[in-house]
Amino acid sequence: MTASTVSASFATADLCDANEARLAAGEVQVLPPVFRAYGRNARFAGAIETVRCFEDNSAVRSALEQPGNGRVLLVDGGGSLRCALLGGNLAQLAQRNGWSGVIVDGCVRDAVEIDACDIGVRALAANPRRSEKRGEGAIGESVRVGGVQVAPGHWCYADEDGIVVSAVALL
Asked: Within a domain: residue 171?
């Protein structure tokens, strides 16, 4: 199954119930319930691409400029609450380029603009301060978010109950 064919009819609670053995083995994990929802799509899923950056969203922009093909961008922002790594312009870019969602271990800004976009976004909080632009960060590396190790190509399923990450497609 490709990222663009994942059904929006899943429920993360059902995925957890159906994959108890994988949860116990650590093949399926749940991100901590610390992420706030933004964007029009409360439910989104897809193969994961990763970005690692700290208070510099240059790599986030670079990733979102690529075709999303229904993927989810997971941004390891180190949990910083000092500035935003995703704003309204980048959310619109993600929507235009076919990303199903963006998860930010950090902040967003322009929450009203993000909420107008047909994508799903999760972040720790909103902060009006923009990030620096130093050209730093890395795309496509294994990251650790909320104690969960995530690699490009893992799968993400997000809904109103939470965010499930799996090493294999669950649907």
From this structure: no
93: containing domain: 3-166
pLDDT digits (tens, 9 = 90+) for 118-165: 999 999 999 999 999 999 999 999 999 999 999 999 999 999 999 999
Q: Which two tokens stand for residue 40?
A: 């029009």
Burial of 19 (0-12, 13-18, 19+ CB in 10 A): middle
Torsion of CA 98, 103, 107, 111, to 10 degrees: 50
- Tens of pLDDT, residue by residue over 72-119, are 999 999 999 999 999 999 999 999 999 999 999 999 999 999 999 999
Structure tokens at 72: 């989810």
Number of domains present in the structure of the chain: 1
pTM here is 0.95
Query: Could you tell me where the DSSP H helices lie in the chain?
Result: 12-18, 20-25, 58-64, 88-96, 111-115
Query: 51: domain CATH number?
Result: 3.50.30.40
